[in-house]
Every structure is written in structure tokens, then in C-alpha cells.
Amino acid sequence: xxxxxxxxxxxxxxxxxxxxxxxxxxxxxxxxxxxxxxxxxxxxxxxxxxxxxxxxxxxxxxxxxxxxxxxxxxxxxxxxxxxxxxxxxxxxxxxxxxxxxxxxxxxxxxxxxxxxxxxxxxxxxxxxxxxxxxxxxxxxxxxxxxxxxxxxxxxxxxxxxxxxxxxxxxxxxxxxxxxxxxxxxxxxxxxxxxxxxxxxxxxxxxxxxxxxxxxxxxxxxxx
Length: 223
Hints:
Layout: E1 2-5, H1 17-25, E2 28-31, H2 34-43, E3 50-52, H3 59-70, E4 75-78, H4 90-101, E5 107-110, H5 115-123, E6 131-132, H6 142-148, E7 156-160, H7 165-176, E8 181-186, E9 194-199, H8 200-209, E10 218-222
Parallel strand pairs: 1-4, 1-5, 2-3, 2-4, 6-7
Antiparallel strand pairs: 7-10, 8-9, 8-10
Helix pairs in contact: 3-4, 7-8
């Protein structure tokens, strides 16, 4: 059995009781970054062997995970934070295992925190109809990506890292103009959590005047 386990996006208390039960009972924990996952497991006094996986892990890592499942091991797959498969490498691993194991493959989601749903819940924007596009391209095809946003007549949700946040605001301003309304969610569930509403220009000016706050991952919602 492979369990897809959602873990906290910041506050460690946000983990579910079922997630803790699965992590305690699993034979191995598959982790995007073993250092981050080890901190979570240590906090809850869970001692389990960790297997590192990344989107660009060599095939031998994928085959090792495949072999563990074929040996009857129960595996818990986690990402660095939030729900695996949402803008992280988990989807590639799940597809690989599904193709290899076919009908003999059992997979179970253990739902929990997600920056996407957390941000939508406080945005004031109806979450029944929106477009989620994850992280914009870091280098190639950025211009094409941002230009393509104009075709959506729905709220658009993006993730962004602190390293490219200011650049992304500028790219959005070039596409939509200064008066486009948006919501910014920063450091959700953490001590410095911040939710901002305003035009792209207002948001841009705020962070230019408070550059020390460009930390942690951001959720951007264009309305």
C-alpha cells in the first residue's frame, strides 16, 4: 500500500490524527527532502527509515521504491509541506508506480493541509470555479506563461518563491496593468502569516517598502 500523506504547511499542529497513525505504521517514509521530513517525524517522536525522492531522481530510486512495494511494504509518501502531488514531484512518482504495478497497486490519500485551499478560504473569492497553475516557469517560457493568463475569465491562483516574487509581480503588472485586483497570502499558518488585498500596484509598493517581508512561499490569487 502507498499512502499519500498531507503534512503541515507551517504550523506542525495542523497534522491530522490519521496522518500520524499512517506515519507511525508505515515501513518507510518517502520524502522530497529528508531533512525537512525528519524534523516533522522527530517532533512527533516517530522513528522511520526515510527514502529520498525528487522529480529528477535517478531511475534506481524509483525502482527501489517499486521493489519495496512488490515486497509488501507499506509506504507513506510526503512532500516538504502540504498535499503531495500539488506542484511537487509526487505526481511523477505515482504515475511511474501505477504504470509498473497496474492492478496490483493500492494507493490511499490521507488528506490534510494545502496552501491552495487555505489561501482560497481567506481570499473572499468563490472557490468553486478557478484556475490553479502552480509555480510560473523560473526561466524559459515565462513571457508566454504570463501572456496566457489573459485568456482565463476566472480567478487564477499561483505559487511563487521569495526569490522570484518581485519579478512575478512586475510580470503580472505588464500583462494586466496596475489596477488588477489580487490577494497575496504569505507564510500561511506561521507566526508571520499575512493576507493582503489590493491592486497589483498597491501590493508591489507595499513589498518595495517592506522588502524584509519577502520570505517564505507566496500564494497569489488574481481576481
